[in-house]
Amino acid sequence: MPLRSTVLRSLAASASLLPATLAAQSLRPSGTGFSLSAAASLAQVTTDLAGRDASSGSATWRADVQYGVTPRLALVGALSVRDIDQEGDALAVRSVDLGVRYLARAGAAVRPFAEAGFGVRRFSTNTVGGVEVSAQNTGPWAAAGVLALVQGHWAVEGAATYGAVRFENWRAGGVAPVLQPVNYREVGARLGVRYFVRVR
Predict the structure, then answer these.
(1) pLDDT per residue over 82-91, tens digit each?
(2) 52, 76, 148, 191 — which has fewest CB within 10 A?
(3) Stated pTM of the model
(4) What's the topology of domain 30-196?
(5) How far is 158 from 121, CA to CA, in rounded Å?
(6) Which pLDDT tens digit goes with each residue over 2-22?
(7) What residues does 22 pair with on adjacent strands?
């Protein structure tokens, strides 16, 4: 077989494989199915008791599970525990957040997103005579940020965050003391990684 014919056949065979190769390289998460995230969260926390505001910074970790119903819309469930040192008082707020995420650019490598929902938050402190005083309530939360795919199943994301709740049904030592309500809010940011279970 002439050398030229052999070279042409080889080039033709390589060219026929090129679309499949490029398609494999361009595979990225569609956003549907399950994904897992771990993020560092930093917030300015403010408590308002009888018109007296107290603020402090607080850092914590946040974990979430999402299920993409469509490439643009996902259901969100998240957990976090925030320990706060506020004017010498040790406070803790445990949160379970439920909500939805909307992605503005489905299928792109960089995808802006917005999240919103309601969280169940439990406030507790042991600074009142060594007895734990706690309250639980629901309140809104929201976030807006950007997700960037880095490789395969993995992405990094960052967002500005907001949450608020009013604590008023207090418990202390098994009884319900009469205490003034506390308005709690946090404004901050988070940065983390996300793993998509399915890539297609």
Answers:
(1) 988 877 778 8
(2) 52
(3) 0.80
(4) Porin (2.40.160)
(5) 23
(6) 544 554 454 455 445 444 433
(7) none
